[in-house]
Amino acid sequence: MPTRKPQTKSPWRHLVWILPLLVVDFFLSRSLSAGCARSGAPDKGGDAPAVAAPARPGGAAEAPAAPEPPPPPPPVWQDFHTPTPQQDLLHPEAPGVLQPTGSGRLVSAMFGSTRTGSINGRLAPRFHEGVDIAATARNNRGAPTDPIYAVADGRVAYVNTVAGNSSYGKYIVLEHPDPSLGLVTRANGSVVTSVVYTLYAHLADIRFGVRAGAAVRAGDEIATMGNTSNDRTGIPMARAHLHWEIGLMLNSRYDRLSREQKTANPMGLYNGLNLFGVDALDVWKAHMNDPAMTFGGYLAHLKPAMTLVLRGKNPDFFVRNPGLWHGAPYDGGPITVTLGESGIPLSGRNATPMELKLLGNTRQAVVEADESVLGRNARAYIQKSSSFKTGWIVTAKGRAWMDHLFF
C-alpha cells in the first residue's frame, strides 16, 4: 500500500483569527486606561497620571486642606455613676441616705471637720475625708446587700483585702484620667494623663477580677457594702456603710517616705495618709449641674482654706498635676500654695516678692487663712498667733505635711 506523503501546514494559518483579536485587545486597553486617568486611579500598567492642584489666582497651586483634629474625648465624669444604688445623693439630709456614727449626728457622716475624738485625753475635732453612704437593702441577717459601683471609667490602682491593715477595712482605690489636671511627659517621651482617685472602704467582699491594673467602666460592680475595719469586730452591722472618697494623691514617693520614717505601711502609695480628698457629695452636685464638669474646673471654683508660702524644691504633686500650676514655670525658689480644708493643694505658683519678704529666712509662712472654710480646723496645719504678721503660724502638723509634700 503506498504511503501518504505528510501534509505541510502553513505557519501563517493562525493569522486569520489572531489579528482580529489583537485589534480588539488594543482598543479595550485604551478604553480602560482612559477611564483610570479620569478617576485618578492607577491602571494595571502603572501609576495614574498626576492631577495638578487647582491654581490660585496668583498662579501658585493651592495646598491641600489639613485634616481636622479628632474631637477631644468627653470628660471622664460625664458618665459619673453613683457608688451604690442610693440615687438621692443631692439630698443627703433625707432619711436613709447617709449613715451617721454612733453619735447619731447626721453631720458625722459628711465630709470635713465633722467628728470629735480624744487626743491626749482632751476632746478635739477630727477630720472625715469622705462621705458615709447608708445601705438601701439588707438580707435576713441584717447585712447590707448593696453592690458597690465604679463611679467613672478608669483602672484599679490598689486593693486591700486584709481588713486589719487599715481603719478603712477592706478597700479599693480606682484612678480616673482627667486631662484638665494636665498632661505629663515622662523621661522616655511617653505622655500620660493626670489622674483622680476614688476610694471605696469598709467592704464586705471584692468582686472576682478586681485587681491592680484591671480596667473598669462607670457602673461596673466592684464590691459589696460591708462593715470591715481594723477593729476585729468591725463596725456594728447596723451601721454598715460605704465610705466614699474622691481626691488627689499628695506624693508619688510616699512609700519611700514611710520606709525612711520606718513606719509600717502595707498599703504603699495608697495609704489614706497620702490621699487628700474633697467633698464627694459636692463633686456629685457639680456634675449634676454641669455634666461636662472636669476635676480641674471643680478645684478652680473651690475657695481656699489657707494660702502658704513654702521654701522647697518643685513638689512632685505639681509635676504630676501641671494643670494646677499657675503663671510662669517654676523658677527654683519658694512657692505659694493654696490648700483646701483637707490639705489638698488647689493651686501652686512662684512666690511674689511680697510673699518672699513675708517668708524671710524661714521655711514656711501663712499668707492668709479663711476661717469660714477652715471650719473647726481639724487638720490643724495652722493656728492663730498674734506674734506673726498675718495672725497665723504653721504648726508642727503643718510642717509634717510640708515635709510630705516636698519629699
Uncertain parts:
1-17, 31-60
CATH superfamily of the largest domain: Glucose Permease (Domain IIA)
Q: Taking Cα atoms only, what radius of gyration do you get, to the nearest Å?
A: 34 Å
The overall number of domains is: 2
| CATH class value of the largest domain | Mainly Beta
Q: Assign an overall shape.
A: globular
The total count of helices amounts to: 8
Total beta-strand segments:
20
Mean pLDDT level: 87
> What is the CATH architecture assignment of the largest domain?
Distorted Sandwich
Written as H for each helix and E for each strand, in order along the chain, the element string is HEEEEEEEEEEEEEHEHHEHEEHEHEEH
What's the story with the biggest beta sheet? 7 strands, antiparallel
Work out the strand percent.
Answer: 15-25%
**Helix fraction?**
10-25%
Distance between the termini: 119 Å
Summarize this entry quickly:
By secondary structure, this protein is α+β, with helices and mostly antiparallel strands. The chain is built from 8 helices and 20 strands.
Structure commentary:
The chain is an alpha+beta fold. The protein has 2 domains: 74-301, Glucose Permease (Domain IIA), CATH 2.70.70; 303-407, no CATH class. The chain has 8 helices and 20 strands. Strands 3, 5, 6, 9, 11, 13 and 14 form a 7-stranded antiparallel sheet that branches. It has a 4-stranded antiparallel sheet with strand order 17-16-15-18. Strands 4-12-10 form a 3-stranded antiparallel sheet, with no helix packed on it. A hairpin with a 5-residue loop joins β16 (335-339) and β17. The protein is globular, with a radius of gyration of 34 Å. It starts with 14 loop residues before the first helix and ends with a helix. The model is unreliable at 1-17 and 31-60 (pLDDT under 50).
